[in-house]
Design brief:
424 residues; mainly alpha; 20 helices
Amino acid sequence: LEEPPPHVIFIFATTEPHKIPSTIHSRCQRFDFRRIAFGEIHDRLKRIASEEGIKIEEEALFSLTREAEGSLRDAQSLLDQVIAFAGTEGINEKAVAGALGLMDRSVLMELTEAVIKKDGKKCLNIVEKIYNFGYDLKKAAADLLEQVRDLTVLKVTGEGGGAGLLELPESEANRLEELSGLIGLDRLQMIFTVLTRGYEEVARSTSPRFSFEMALLRAVHIEDVESVPELISRLELLKQKVGAAEGHGARSARTAHVAEGEGGKGAETKAVAEGAVRKSGPAEGRSKDAGRARKAGKEEGVGVEGPRSSEGPGTSTSGFMEHIRQRNPRLFKSLESAAVSLSPTGLTINVIGEPGFLLVKKDLLESIASEYFKKRVPVKIKKEGAVRKESEGAAPPTPDDTLLNDAKRIFGGRVVEDRRRTNV
C-alpha cells in the first residue's frame, strides 16, 4: 500500500468503514456509495427499454424500480429476468409480478381500502387469496405498511404536496388520495403502529397467516379518536351550560322564597278554609264550605282542593315515574332518590345532593312530562340536601369534596366507592 506498482490499484469495499484502522485510512482515498434515487433508476430503465426496443408500461417500470431498492445493478438484473419471462412486447405490471413473485398492487389496494372501511370479513378473504396464491406474507405485511405510510404522507402534505416523497405511479397516487379522504390522521398513525407490531409477529411466527389476520383485525377495529384539546373544550362547554342552569335554578328558588314570604296571608286563609271543611257536618254542608274555601283560596292566590278520586293514568306522579323508567332507565335511576311532587304550577323535584345531571336533562324531563300529562308541565329542580345540611350546621365541604362534586356534575355520574384515606 505504501509503494504499489504503477500498474496495480487496490480497492477495498466494506459496509463497516469504522472498523478499518487509521493507518489504512491514511493511505487510501475514501468514496462513500449511497442509494441511487428512485427517479434516476426509473429514468435509466426507461432509457434502456427505449434503446433496446422493449415495450414496457409505466406501472411495470415503477414495480421494477421499487424492488431494486436503490441499486441500479439489481434493477437491470430484474429487468433481464422479466424480459426472459414475458418477452419484449407489452410488459405490464402483472407480468412483472408473475416473474418476480410479487403481490399484485390491486390486491394490496383492496386490502388497504378494507382496513380503512373497517371491513374485517373482506380482509380475511384477501389474506386467503394471498395465501393460496403463494405470496410471501411477510412481504405482503411490509407492502401494506408502506402503503399506510404513503397515505399518511398524503394526509399531511395535502393533494399534490407529497409528490417528491411518494414513489408511486400517477394512477396509484390518485387512488390513495381518494382513500385518504376516508380516514383521519390519528387513526392512520394508530393503524401503522398496530401493523408494525403485526409485521414483527409475522416475521417470527410459525403461523404467519394467523398472525397477519389478527393484526389486520386489530387495525380494523381501531376507532377514530378526538384530540385532547377538543375533549377539553367540550367539557368546558358542558361545564358552562351546567353553571348557567344552576344559576337559573338559584334565581328561581329566590323568587319562590320571596313569593312564599308575601303569601303569608294566603297561607292563613288556606288554614281557615281547611278548618271549615273539616268542621262541616253533612255532606251538602261540607260541599258548600269546600266550595267557599276554594273560592277564598283562589282569591288569595293559594290552591285548595277538596276530596279527589284515586289517581288515574296521566295524572299521578307514580305513573309518571313508571313512564320515565320505561322511556329512559338512566334518567329514572337519577330520580329514585329524589322527591317528585305535582302541583298546579308544575312538577317539582327535590334532590338531595348535586342536581347537575338533572339540570342538564331538564328539557328532556319537561318533554316527557308534557307527553305523559297531555299538557305543558314546567319542571323545577331544587337542591334540598345543601339547604338541609346548612340548617343543621354541617361543616363546609373540603376542596376534595368540591372537586368530586364538580366531576359528578360534569359527567352526570355518582360515587360507587370512596377509597380516600382519612387516617393519614
